[in-house]
Amino acid sequence: MARICMLVFNNYSTDPRVRREAEALVERGDTVDCICLGNGMNKITSLAGVRLFCVSAGKYNGSNPLFHVTAYLRFFCYVFVKAAVLHFRKPYDIVQAHTMPDFLVFAALVPKLFGARIILDIHDLMPELYIAKFGSSYRNWAVRFIIWVEKRSVAFADKAIAVHEPHLDILAKHGNPPDKFSIVLNVPDPRIFVGGPAWSAASRRPFRLIYHGSIPRRAGLEVALRAVAHCRKEIPDIEFQIVGAGEDVRRLSGLTQELGLSDCVEFKQGVPVEQLPAILNEAAVGVVPYAADAFTQYVLPTKLMEYAALGIPVIVSRLRTIQRYFDESAVVCFQSGDDVELASQILWLHRNPSAARRMAFNAFRLAEAQNWRQQREVYFRLVDSLLPVRPTIFANAG
Fold first, then answer.
1. CB contact at 8 A, 322 and 254
2. In terms of domains, do 134 and 240 share one?
3. Which strands make up the sheet holding 238-243, listed edge to edge?
4. Sites in the chain below the pLDDT cut of 70
5. Whole-prediction pTM value?
6. Of 25, 29, 213, 323, which is least surrounded by CB within 10 A?
7. What is the pLDDT of residues 267-277, one digit of tens each?
8. CA 120 to CA 6: how far, in whole Å?
9. Structural domain tally of the chain?
10. With 0-12 CB in 10 A as exposed, 13-18 as middle and 19+ as buried, what is 175?
11. d(CA 189, CA 16)
């Protein structure tokens, strides 16, 4: 039985990737601790067998890069001390850092010096996110510095994880050794996301669209709101539910009022992963309207995989990585930023429920081909490759 500590600058209960990996380890008999953000969970000490150490802090959702760095550093200092203290009490075999930020992996320095092996799970690309968020380029000194930090972070870890092949490709272009990585896709937990019930949802009333997850500007939700406004005349009972939190909520709430959509658009706080299917299964269509930028071109949204697993028809922006895994027989595509085309695709799905069900089934089949049972075995092999070889004692017969 291994002892593993996870470090994550996020709310554990709403982070599906961290929870899948941590709870899979617990199910097979390992012990898992997680040092994470509190976000109202500070009094919760365990969840599904994972022991939690929650920091009373939240993420900064503004546009000032200095405030982002300050939030990261504050969390880093807490985690550095907490991981060291916990390791001295009872040593860990492995410490796994989940990005962002990449440099969070260095909070495992003390456990590493005293024998723990280190995994860096790179969820997102920090250089590309900086370029997209602050209108920069690869020539910018800050971007070059972030790439340098990324490379040092990967070098510090014993093993690293990428979330899909295009993600690994760009990490390699940054100068990281590809042979140090395993690929573990962001796929839904089959215990939670059980396919089938939503395949008839496209003909439901009201006709509800849904988006869930983080809500930054790059999510493209302004485009989705404008598309809903275009559709109201033909679909009087249209609804749009946005589930989650992020920097763009206030602006989007104002736009909702400006467009006269307050009676059909609902903003709902994020919920723990296990509560999502009940909400998602009430929707007719999932919408992933991401803006096209240096960051989103390398994103395969977990929400897309979750809609596919539940059999919910999906409309997505035409982005490189999404099109690598889902063709247009499985998802309805539109040009990123084009609210008129998005509205046209919403109307098409509304008029053609049988086609919507067929596409949802195709998406389900594609998602099932990359299921968590397969990805879990990849993850287990990676973890086991870092564990010390346990001596086997053979008893002599007779």
1. no
2. no
3. 265-268, 238-243, 207-212, 285-288, 314-317, 332-334
4. 39-44, 57-65, 67, 195-205, 390-398
5. 0.85
6. 29
7. 999 888 889 99
8. 10
9. 2
10. exposed
11. 8
